[in-house]
């Protein structure tokens, strides 16, 4: 006969094989130094990489409406009611291709809670936008608060008839593309850059500036199949566009319906995570040699009301993207802190080495010390953690 | 035929339905016989059951918490009684407001998940109860109803049913025994389910009816029982039965004619002539009763009549759970949760205020044309939207899964204790067990895992002695008689040899005869022949009594048979011829803890005189001795007292044996008083005690007995270790002072060099004076090196302490003593001492004991520990933890307590840390997202961070972490002291958590913020956006909290690696899946993020920057040093693993 005692396993007895790394000076001090040894060179390399990036940046916020006259910038009229800014700038060293042109906005909250979600992915992907071929279905509430022309400020669309001072919209009418993101689409137009002698123009292409995933998502809309007479009263451009894009100031026709497959639009539709951000405008494969250049910017995008700025950035890239010394510095700083900590601990270890496994390091000990004293120490200890620590 | 009787009974009867409570008070006391107006006879039962009272499901019991209908409301109520669940619910509801940044589903799903698991746990537990209820309810039981035998389901038993109980059958009602298969109506029952005692108890039938044993007899019995209303007292029952036995079978329709005298005379009730026995009235007491849960043993069958069913039965009424103890850590945790709520409220307030200010400014300047606004309505809408968004988001600060995890962790810790082979005992089979029986494995029990962590902080231990420190294996050591000591332990049977030697004088022989008669007659031992081994075995409720009977049997005075009133034994005479004697025990005056003595009155078959044999505690007997010099010569008493002292000094338990001859008149006086007391319905016990006092004095001392109870294994080592841990050990024992001091010495409570301080006061004021003296002396001695003090207090002085309000002084003395021994204490005093220390010092107390007398102490102390010994399991059932031997206490405290505390506190701290860090990042993001409440994480990730991505790692701590090994903890008492004073839970740790959380949130947020720059971080010039940002923050924060976990982990087992890798994989896979299924707006963005070198480059530096402070801090904290000790030197003392291997037989 035998008794089988179940469960005498290492797990149940809490005796699983274990690795117990011990933080002794022998292991920790080398670790600190090693970390420093690895981090500092990486930091230096990253810092240099960032430094190698060539970048030209100029702020043209006040170009057409100068508060303080800016050098190298001139305001010229047109197109339409807008003005154009002509900028002259110098490239000190040859910029090896590819060279990228960005516009940079500050203090613009593309990450606002109500802004981020205010777009209709299906509408932009041309999914189910026009099932009947004659009327567009109402966009879902995802575009809130800008889904329908009636959501726009009064008299945005002057071609719509009013009754008793109130515009009457077709109940099926939608905004395309709907939502706050599309509505605030960057409307300035950046030109290519030309050498001062106007001989050479370096063009910045916009055909591969969006992420492939975005390029795959956005499709031209089939709303243009709505016949020409109806489209104007069924599909409306976003309210800001009526003001800023001359081609849409009179509403859509089948011919000029906005095409969502434009990559600059796709870049804009990917909201930035932080209030200061760049958006890619174009890419030049060619190396741009040093010299003086000019470019023109059609200025219709308003940033001054909310205290923002807008700039043009022309830059090469490194492994870190644009110019950003932060990571390099971070590696160097952390590496150096490791060394400092290592040194401090090393010095302390040299002066006053810790005896391993010595109970005197425990905050209470020596039961042999005698009852009176012991009683007191116990009392003090027993008064609770709040007193002890 | 009495037609009247067929009518429905006009008096409402105790039908166990909902109205029963009312009935209890309404019932008129005008039934068959006159009753004392003061007596509670509010419960009436008739056998056979009148048809009007026939019901079904009267005995239906439900121990489940829920029914199908009440489950949802009750469960929700119990869950939402907790503040934090309401809070989470509010958080979930906040998203119903349209423009919140979270979707309703994602916000409510974690709460649903937590509720789901809680519901599942409750349902599983309840289903087990339901199954056992069903089994109990459906069991078929043989009954006689209206003279007809039938089988009914147990749930359909009703009051008055005559039930046929077979051998080894468990009863499902409370019932009165009518007769049994024994001639005299004796039944033996096992009450293990009620009080855990496995020894047999004798119960007896109603004496007048015990001969109605056969079916055709018992069906003729009519009963009318009046008794107390259902109550929870398991030890007493008072009632009376009127019986009538008819010639034919009893029929309910004739009952009224039998029991109502007025009806009795009407012509219709002439058939009452067929009464063959009665009417008669008999008292009923607990000894006539078998309770629900009892098992009939050693008795072929019994007829019983049901008096309480279902919810009225005593055991069901006792099912109330004792008030749940809560650990100190849980109270702290509640404070911590409150603190986090405040943190949360501050974040919410700041966020919303800034949102409002920012928007107010912009509204007035009407500037942010790309956002909705420009009207005052938008200002309000935005504010409310942000408020709800932030409220919903910040609820994540409280780790919703923490409370589930704490429960799970406790469960695992409890299981570890149960599984621990070093705390299990292989108990060899009992002596009378059949050959080949396997030893039983006695595992530890963790009844209340809520207190696991309190075990690591115990400062005062209150211990019982008998059965706790000692083995409770009583063996007779010495007999003392006639100035002679017979060392029965060394020379078994020496007393008998002397008796049979024939050389002793007449007077001595007479006393020896008296002596052995007391031994064989005055006890509650039941002899029985073991069916398997054929040996004579003795069973009794008191191991002392068994020891005495066994020892006297060694001297050939053998108890062989015992019936209700007769005791049969064999005894040799002076010349050695063995004869069988049968004594009728007229009265047995039972032992209880107040009386501390037991007497029997017998009629000497030779002389015809009445003898009272009394044995009891020495102080009780000595004060009841006759002062008559002739009976108790002074020198004999002095010699006996000297012998008693000597016995107690070597730690023996002593009893005095005495007798008295009662003359006829005194005996009858007593008999009348006693029998009157027996039938009393109220204060029966008091009246009986008073009756006993009539005869139990003027005793003549015959001799003394001394019983040895050896210390358990490793008791001195354990106590020594615990004292070195800084724990004060208080021994609370019923022993004499000398015995107690002796035990104190042998168990190392008193160590060489320690000063023993005694507190023996005669009066209350004296007690105060002595305490003052002691305090003064201790103060004077303070500077001198001593090994410490031991305080010895006797029960009387302890009484003075409480009576004179000297508790403060007593505590002042107590805290300066390493150990305290309280002797001669009553069970009540035990709990008073515990409460005195608990309330006076506010220190963690632990009480350990094995007997019913320790229950109050076990329940009073913060932690109650029961020893699964031989004194039943009452202590075990009321305890929080229980194991087989005292020595396991050390391991329970220093290993399991320590680990439980460490694991739980680290689990809690870590859970809070990770959520604080997680959400504080969200707060920083507010500065850069116009305080709009936009999430910094993808919504799905936010929701599942707690319950999915980082759920397992905290459990890893909770299940596997060990800062020091068990061997180390068991060898270094200082470590225990550390855990007690707050090594695992203190402000420094809490500050560390806050620091880590805030620093990590800052480092992660600003690290990524700065690495992002303007978002132009792609190597092909493309810019990333908000959604790639969510990926960065989410992934890096997960890695940071994992890195923190790695630093926290001292003990890496395979599961650590597995869980970490698994959690990382889950996070990565979830990211990919979210993208693949096109969830939200993230389509395509995450794979891009993985391809960004900046992501991979910022990871190491941010993680390193986060954990550097913690790493340096941990390196510099002292526990590490202990751990290195472990690996380098701890080969010492480790000893071989104690293995429970297969036992071959």
UniProtKB/TrEMBL annotation, chain A:
Coiled coil: none annotated. The keyword Transport does not apply. InterPro entries: CDC50/LEM3_fam. It comes from the Eukaryota. It is a multi-pass membrane protein. Residues 370-389 are annotated as: Disordered. Belongs to the CDC50/LEM3 family. This is Cell cycle control protein.
TrEMBL record, chain B:
Keywords: ATP-binding, Magnesium, Membrane, Metal-binding, Nucleotide-binding, Translocase, Transmembrane, Transmembrane helix. GO terms for biological process: phospholipid translocation. It catalyses: ATP + H2O + phospholipidSide 1 = ADP + phosphate + phospholipidSide 2; a 1,2-diacyl-sn-glycero-3-phosphoethanolamine(out) + ATP + H2O = a 1,2-diacyl-sn-glycero-3-phosphoethanolamine(in) + ADP + phosphate + H(+). It is an enzyme of class 7 (translocase). ATP binds at residues 464-466, 545, 591, 615, 653, 733-735, 824, 830, 853-854. Its main location: membrane. Mg(2+) binds at residues 464, 466, 850, 854. Residues 139-200 form the P-type ATPase A domain. Residues 1-24 are annotated as: Disordered. The chain crosses the membrane at residues 83-102, 332-359, 379-406, 907-928, 940-960, 989-1012, 1024-1045, 1052-1074, 1094-1115. Pfam families: Cation_ATPase, E1-E2_ATPase, PhoLip_ATPase_C, PhoLip_ATPase_N. Its EC number is 7.6.2.1. GO terms for molecular function: ATP binding; ATP hydrolysis activity; ATPase-coupled intramembrane lipid transporter activity; magnesium ion binding. Residues 876-1115 form the P-type ATPase C-terminal domain. This is Phospholipid-transporting ATPase. It comes from Chytriomyces confervae.
């Amino acid at each position: 006969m035998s008794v089988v005692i179940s469960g005498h396993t290492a797990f149940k007895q809490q005796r699983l094989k274990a690795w117990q790394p011990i933080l002794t000076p022998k292991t920790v001090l080398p670790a600190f130094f090693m970390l420093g040894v690895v981090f500092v060179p990486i930091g230096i390399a990253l810092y240099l990489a960032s430094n190698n990036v060539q970048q030209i940046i100029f702020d043209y916020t006040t170009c057409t409406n100068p508060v303080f006259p800016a050098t190298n910038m001139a305001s010229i009229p047109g197109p339409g009611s807008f003005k154009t800014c002509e900028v002259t700038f110098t490239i000190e060293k040859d910029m090896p291709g590819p060279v990228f042109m960005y516009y940079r906005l500050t203090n613009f909250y593309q990450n606002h809670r109500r802004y981020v979600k205010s777009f209709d992915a299906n509408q932009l992907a041309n999914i189910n936008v026009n099932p009947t071929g004659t009327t567009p279905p109402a966009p879902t509430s995802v575009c809130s608060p800008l889904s329908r022309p009636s959501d726009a400020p009064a008299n945005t669309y002057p071609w719509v008839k009013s009754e008793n001072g109130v515009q009457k919209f077709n109940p099926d009418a939608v905004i395309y593309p709907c939502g706050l993101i599309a509505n605030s689409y960057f409307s300035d137009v950046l030109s290519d850059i030309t050498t001062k002698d106007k001989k050479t123009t370096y063009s910045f292409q916009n055909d591969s500036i969006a992420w492939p995933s975005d390029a795959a998502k956005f499709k031209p809309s089939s709303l243009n199949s709505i016949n020409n007479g109806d489209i104007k009263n069924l599909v409306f451009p976003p309210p800001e566009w009526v003001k800023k894009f001359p081609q849409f100031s009179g509403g859509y026709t089948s011919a000029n319906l906005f095409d969502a497959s434009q990559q600059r639009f796709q870049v804009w539709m990917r909201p930035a995570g932080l209030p200061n951000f760049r958006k890619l405008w174009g890419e030049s494969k060619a190396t741009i040699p040093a010299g003086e250049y000019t470019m023109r910017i059609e200025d219709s995008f308003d940033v001054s009301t909310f205290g923002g700025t807008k700039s043009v950035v022309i830059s090469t890239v490194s492994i870190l993207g644009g110019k950003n010394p932060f990571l390099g510095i971070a590696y160097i700083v952390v590496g150096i802190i490791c060394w400092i900590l290592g040194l401090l601990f090393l010095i302390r270890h040299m002066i006053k080495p810790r005896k391993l496994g010595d109970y005197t390091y425990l905050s209470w000990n020596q039961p042999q010390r005698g009852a009176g004293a012991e009683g007191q120490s116990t009392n003090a200890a027993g008064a609770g953690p709040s007193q002890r620590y | 035929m009495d037609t009247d009787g067929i009518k429905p009974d006009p008096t409402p009867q105790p039908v166990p339905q909902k109205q029963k409570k009312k009935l209890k008070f309404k019932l008129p006391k005008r039934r068959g016989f006159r009753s004392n107006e003061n007596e509670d006879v509010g419960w009436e039962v008739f056998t056979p059951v009148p048809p009007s009272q026939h019901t079904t499901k009267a005995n239906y019991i439900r121990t489940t918490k829920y029914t199908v209908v009440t489950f949802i409301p009750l469960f929700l109520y119990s869950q939402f009684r907790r503040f934090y669940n309401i809070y989470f619910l509010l958080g979930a509801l906040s998203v119903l407001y349209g423009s919140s940044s979270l979707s309703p589903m994602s916000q409510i799903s974690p709460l649903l998940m937590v509720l789901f698991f809680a519901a599942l746990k409750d349902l599983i537990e309840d289903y087990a109860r339901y199954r056992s209820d069903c089994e109990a309810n459906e069991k078929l039981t043989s009954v006689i109803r209206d003279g007809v035998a039938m089988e009914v389901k147990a749930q359909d038993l009703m009051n008055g049913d005559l039930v046929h109980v077979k051998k080894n059958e468990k009863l499902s009602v409370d019932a009165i025994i009518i007769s049994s298969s024994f001639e005299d109506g004796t039944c033996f029952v096992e009450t293990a389910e009620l009080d855990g005692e496995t020894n047999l108890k004798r119960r007896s039938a109603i004496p007048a009816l015990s001969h109605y044993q056969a079916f055709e007899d018992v069906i003729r019995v009519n009963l009318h029982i009046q008794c107390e209303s259902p109550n929870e007292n398991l030890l007493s029952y008072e009632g009376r039965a009127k019986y009538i036995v008819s010639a034919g079978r009893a029929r309910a329709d004739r009952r009224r004619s039998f029991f109502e005298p007025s009806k009795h005379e009407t012509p219709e009730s002439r058939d009452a002539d067929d009464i063959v026995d009665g009417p008669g009235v008999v008292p009923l007491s607990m000894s006539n009763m078998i309770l629900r849960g009892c098992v009939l043993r050693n008795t072929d069958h019994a007829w019983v009549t049901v008096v309480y069913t279902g919810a009225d039965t005593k055991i069901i009424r006792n099912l109330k759970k004792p008030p749940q103890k809560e650990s100190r850590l849980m109270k702290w945790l509640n404070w911590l949760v409150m603190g986090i709520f405040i943190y949360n409220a501050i974040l919410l307030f700041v966020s919303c205020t800034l949102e409002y200010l920012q928007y107010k400014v912009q509204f007035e300047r009407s500037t942010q044309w790309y956002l909705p606004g420009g009207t005052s309505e938008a200002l309000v809408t935005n504010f409310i939207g942000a408020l709800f968004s932030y409220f919903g988001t910040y609820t994540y600060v409280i780790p919703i899964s923490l409370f589930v995890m704490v429960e799970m962790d406790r469960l695992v810790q409890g299981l570890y204790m149960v599984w621990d082979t070093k705390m299990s005992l292989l108990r060899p089979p009992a002596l009378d067990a059949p050959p080949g029986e396997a030893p039983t494995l006695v595992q530890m029990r963790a009844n209340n895992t809520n207190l696991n962590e309190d075990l690591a902080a115990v400062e005062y231990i209150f211990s019982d002695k008998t059965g706790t420190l000692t083995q409770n294996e009583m063996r007779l050591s010495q007999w003392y008689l006639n100035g002679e000591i017979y060392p029965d332990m060394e020379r078994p049977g020496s007393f008998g040899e002397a008796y049979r030697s024939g050389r002793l004088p007449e007077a001595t022989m007479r006393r020896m005869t008296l002596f052995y008669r007391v031994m064989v007659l005055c006890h509650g031992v039941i002899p029985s022949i073991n069916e398997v081994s054929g040996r004579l075995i003795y069973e009794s409720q008191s191991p002392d009594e068994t020891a005495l009977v066994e020892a006297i049997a060694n001297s050939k005075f053998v108890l062989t048979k015992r019936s209700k009133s007769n005791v049969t034994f064999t005894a040799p005479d002076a010349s050695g011829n063995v004869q069988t004697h049968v004594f009728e025990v007229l009265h047995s005056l039972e032992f209880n803890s107040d009386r501390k003595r037991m007497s029997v009155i017998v009629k000497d078959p030779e002389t015809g005189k009445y003898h009272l044999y009394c044995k009891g505690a020495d102080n009780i007997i000595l004060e009841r001795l006759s002062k008559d010099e002739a009976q108790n010569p002074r020198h004999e008493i002095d010699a006996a007292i000297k012998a008693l002292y000597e016995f107690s000094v070597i730690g023996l338990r002593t009893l005095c044996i005495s007798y008295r001859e009662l003359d006829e008149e005194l005996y009858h006086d007593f008999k009348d008083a006693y029998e009157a007391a027996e039938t009393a319905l109220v204060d029966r016990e008091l009246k009986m005690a008073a009756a006993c006092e009539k005869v139990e004095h003027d005793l003549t001392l015959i001799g003394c007995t001394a019983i040895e109870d050896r210390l358990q294994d490793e008791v001195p080592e354990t106590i020594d270790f615990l004292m070195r841990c800084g724990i004060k050990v208080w021994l609370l024992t019923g022993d004499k002072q000398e015995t107690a001091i002796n035990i104190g010495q042998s168990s190392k409570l008193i160590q060489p060099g320690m000063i023993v301080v005694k507190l023996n006061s005669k009066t209350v004021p004296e007690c105060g004076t002595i305490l003052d003296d002691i305090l003064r002396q201790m103060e004077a001695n303070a500077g001198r090196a001593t090994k410490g003090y031991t305080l010895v207090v006797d029960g009387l002085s302890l009484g003075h302490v409480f009576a004179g309000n000297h508790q403060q002084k007593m505590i002042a003395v107590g805290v300066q003593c390493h150990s305290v021994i309280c002797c001669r204490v009553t069970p009540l005093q035990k709990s008073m001492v515990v409460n005195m220390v608990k309330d006076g010092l506010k220190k963690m107390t632990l009480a350990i004991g094995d007997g019913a007398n320790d229950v109050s102490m076990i329940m009073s102390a913060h932690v109650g520990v029961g020893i699964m010994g031989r004194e039943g399991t009452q202590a075990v059932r009321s305890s929080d933890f229980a194991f087989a031997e005292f020595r396991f206490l050390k391991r329970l405290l220093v290993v399991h307590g320590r680990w439980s505390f460490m694991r739980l506190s680290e689990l809690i701290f870590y859970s809070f840390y990770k959520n604080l860090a997680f959400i504080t990042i969200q707060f920083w993001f507010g500065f850069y997202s116009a305080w709009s409440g936009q999430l910094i994480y993808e919504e799905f990730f936010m929701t599942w961070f707690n319950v999915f991505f980082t759920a397992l790692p905290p459990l890893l701590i909770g299940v596997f972490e060990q800062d020091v090994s068990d061997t180390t903890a068991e060898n270094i008492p200082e470590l225990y002291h550390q855990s007690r004073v707050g090594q695992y839970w203190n402000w420094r740790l809490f500050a560390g958590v806050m620091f880590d959380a805030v620093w990590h949130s800052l480092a992660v947020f600003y690290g990524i913020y700065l690495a992002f720059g303007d978002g132009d971080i792609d190597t092909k010039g493309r810019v990333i956006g908000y959604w790639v940002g969510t990926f960065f923050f989410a992934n890096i924060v997960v890695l940071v909290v994992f890195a923190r976990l790695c630093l926290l982990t001292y003990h890496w087992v395979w599961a650590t690696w597995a869980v970490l890798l698994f959690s990382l994989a889950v996070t990565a896979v979830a990211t990919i899946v979210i993208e693949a299924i096109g969830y939200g707006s993230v389509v395509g963005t995450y794979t891009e993020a993985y391809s960004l070198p900046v992501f991979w480059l910022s990871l190491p530096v941010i993680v390193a920057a986060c954990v550097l402070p913690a790493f340096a801090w941990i390196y510099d904290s002292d526990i590490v040093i202990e751990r290195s000790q472990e690996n380098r030197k701890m080969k010492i003392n480790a000893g071989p693993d104690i293995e429970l291997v297969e036992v071959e037989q």
